[in-house]
Design goal:
Blueprint (H helix, E strand, L loop, with lengths): L13 E2 L4 E3 L5 E3 L6 E2 L15 H11 L5 H14 L6 E7 L5 H7 L6 E8 L2 H10 L4 E4 L12 E7 L5 H7 E12 L5 H7 L10 H4 L4 E15 L2 H9 L9 H8 L4 E14 L1
Parallel strand pairs: 4-7, 5-6, 5-8, 6-7, 8-9
Antiparallel strand pairs: 1-2, 2-3, 9-11, 10-11
């Protein structure tokens, strides 16, 4: 049974063998044709269609499926397999801010000697739609990470890649031996892309350890840095649409990107692991 709960009354949701997930209070959530459910109540939305739009999600998928971030996927797998101490050979993982599902499938599935049951959530219905349609072995739903429709103490590992984080909610859904793994930008992440857009590059100053509050304690940090070669202006634009730079790109900078057919870009990631104390 999936560890999901009703966003209205917090009672467990179960599949009715038709096309809906239902709680004991008869709150009903239809399974879409794409295979996902929407657990984001209307009164929790801050806009008509929160999160990444269809254009941004499609750009991310087109970029990631070229394998540019494969070294990051391998590093995440390695940390899970070699560092995390789990009580069972079967674990439940939440991909928080899952986007279009690439990380869920490529970093969290097919782990060595560990069977992973993967659920993923994002506030963007477009992202969840893309994820559910392609990665059918995982279960995806629309929700806010600040009000997760997930059972208390039901998750062994949370993965959060470049997404918002909420210590209170994460600690609630994780079991006593659970782990939180956060992927955030290293100081030189996307340096060359930023230099195309701005006059100069300011190194990232993002200290995730200071942002994650009790009851979590810092277990370890891993740095993964590599370069990718992009030889296509369309693919470079796809990468731009994945970053916050997209919203601040001037017409002049956009022209530079459109005319750039070859560039080497630094990918710099911090993988930080937390445990509940």
């Amino acid at each position: 049974m999936l560890p999901i709960i009703c966003p209205h009354c917090n009672e467990p949701l179960s599949f009715n063998n038709e096309r809906s997930y239902v709680c004991k209070n008869n709150h009903n959530f239809d399974l879409s044709k794409g295979g996902y459910i929407n657990l984001l109540p209307v009164n929790k939305k801050k806009s008509k269609s929160p999160g990444d739009n269809d254009m941004m999600v499609k750009a991310r998928r087109d970029f990631l499926e070229q394998g540019f971030y494969d070294p990051l996927m391998k590093e995440i797998k390695s940390v899970i397999e070699n560092e995390l101490i789990v009580d069972s050979k079967e674990i439940t993982i939440l991909d928080s801010g899952c986007g279009e599902g690439y990380y869920s499938e490529n970093a969290l599935s097919n782990l060595k000697e560990i069977k992973s049951n993967i659920i993923g959530t994002d506030i963007s219905k477009y992202a969840v739609k893309y994820a559910a349609k392609k990665y059918k072995n995982n279960f995806y739903f629309v929700s806010s990470i600040y009000n997760l429709p997930v059972k208390t103490d039901s998750i062994d590992l949370i993965l959060s890649v470049f997404s918002p984080n909420d210590s209170k909610e994460f600690s609630r859904v994780l079991n006593a031996n659970g782990y939180l793994m956060i992927v955030s930008p290293g100081e030189n992440h996307m340096k060359q892309l930023a230099e195309l857009i701005y006059d100069s590059f300011r190194p990232h100053e993002y200290n995730i350890i200071e942002k994650i509050e009790e009851p979590f304690s810092h277990a370890s940090t891993h740095r993964k840095t590599f370069k990718i070669e992009i030889n296509d202006s369309v693919m470079l634009q796809n990468l731009l649409k994945m970053t916050p730079y997209y919203w601040n790109t001037s017409i002049e900078a956009q022209a530079k990107i459109e005319n750039c057919n070859a560039i080497s870009i630094t990918c710099d990631f911090s993988i930080t692991v937390f445990k509940i104390v």
